[in-house]
Design the sequence.
């Protein structure tokens, strides 16, 4: 019987989004059509410095970890070196492990790895499934690294389009991402949308008065706007800071940032420059503490820079919904997040770089308790109906059974 092989830079015990979701996908395929194994690297993000066994079996999944550098990913040179060593190390190991008719799922990060795995699958006549977490090179445009008119961008875009077409199947995290993949592949790629999920069994609604974090910070009586998760370069943190500046005379409103990332330092510096006392920064929360950190709010915020629609879909959305929170989404109008928020009436959307409008929407939600309560109920109901682990796990099983 052919094996199912999951190839990813990050896997358990890494707790960042990629590591967490790839672990869930692999374990969800156990007891299906074929043995499940994983080829990955050592933790290099949230659990960087932890050395995991080179070989182990966990929850029915055989895990092989390859050597790679584990430099600080918040530094561009460190992430680049990690990408190169991880891709080469995993690629070399995959050359010997992948067999005839295997079903191989590889995630798009690091961006070189899927191309190496695609060649190996072609050589071994194995099925190649591409899971798109970020669309390259488009993700470099909002960061100011590349321009769409540059020759490098055009070449990388063409190569990725060919990769999509060559795959037996491409999985996109959202409808906006599926549209972008279809555009790059000129409609020739086989694409389906399988979203990430919310951990509804662990994360559930909790009142502010019983939240240990808010009690520790003395914020249980404030109207708390919570931004929780990765503070990356693609996230529009400065719009949140500027909104906090506009609302600094509203003593009852407080902004709480929980997480780490390459974009955090700029936001912290801006808060200090403005002398804001209505903003608090905390380090990232361990997954065992997510129910506390995600419930430390009246309203939860997602924030992306302009032109991120289709490029990346934030997995944190579904855990915020699991916590039963109204969602304030600073996103492009055509994004998957905006679609989910509107369709289920779970919050409001604001265009990126619009701090005045964001401040107005925060005041609106603060002053309308009935509206917030209804949005909160809708959030929990929607994630239970559409975005639970059992639902998404079955979609992956159906996909692999169909190949």
Sequence:
């Amino acid at each position: 019987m052919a094996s199912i092989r999951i190839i990813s830079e990050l896997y358990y015990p890494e707790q960042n989004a990629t590591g967490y979701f790839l672990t869930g996908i692999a374990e969800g395929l156990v007891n299906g059509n074929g043995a499940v194994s994983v080829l990955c690297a050592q933790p290099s993000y949230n659990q960087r410095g932890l050395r995991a066994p080179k070989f182990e079996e966990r929850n029915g999944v055989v895990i092989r970890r390859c050597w790679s550098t584990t430099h600080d990913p918040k530094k561009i040179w460190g992430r680049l070196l990690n990408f190169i060593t991880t891709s080469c190390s995993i690629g070399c190991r995959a050359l010997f492990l992948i067999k005839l008719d295997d079903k191989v799922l590889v995630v798009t990060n690091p961006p070189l790895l899927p191309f190496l795995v695609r060649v190996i699958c072609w050589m071994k006549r194995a099925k190649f499934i591409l899971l798109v977490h970020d669309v390259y090179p488009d993700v470099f445009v909002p960061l100011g690294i590349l321009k769409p008119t540059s020759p490098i961008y055009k070449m990388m875009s063409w190569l990725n389009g060919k990769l999509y077409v060559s795959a037996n199947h491409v999985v996109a995290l959202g409808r906006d991402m599926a549209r972008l993949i279809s555009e790059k592949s000129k409609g020739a790629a086989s694409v389906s949308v399988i979203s990430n999920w919310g951990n509804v069994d662990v994360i559930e609604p909790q009142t502010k008065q019983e939240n240990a974090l808010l009690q520790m910070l003395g914020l249980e009586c404030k109207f708390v706007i919570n931004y929780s998760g990765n503070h990356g370069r693609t996230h529009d943190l400065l719009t949140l800071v500027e909104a906090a500046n506009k609302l600094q005379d509203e003593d009852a409103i407080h902004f709480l940032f929980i997480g780490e990332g390459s974009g955090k330092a700029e936001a912290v510096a801006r808060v200090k420059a403005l002398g804001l006392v209505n903003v608090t920064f905390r380090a990232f929360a361990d997954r065992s503490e997510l129910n506390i950190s995600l419930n430390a709010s009246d309203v939860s915020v997602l924030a992306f820079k302009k032109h991120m629609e289709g490029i990346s879909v934030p997995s944190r959305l579904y855990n915020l919904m699991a916590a039963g929170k109204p969602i304030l989404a600073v996103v492009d109008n055509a994004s998957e997040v905006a679609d989910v928020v509107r369709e289920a009436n779970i919050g409001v959307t604001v265009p990126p770089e619009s701090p005045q409008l964001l401040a107005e929407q925060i005041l609106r939600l603060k002053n309308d308790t009935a509206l917030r309560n209804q949005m909160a109920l809708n959030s929990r109901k929607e994630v239970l109906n559409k975005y639970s682990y059992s639902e998404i796990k079955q979609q992956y099983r159906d996909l692999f059974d169909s190949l």
In short: The first strand starts at residue 4 and ends at 7. DSSP finds 14 helices and 14 strands in the chain. The radius of gyration is 21 Å. The longest helix spans residues 76-97.
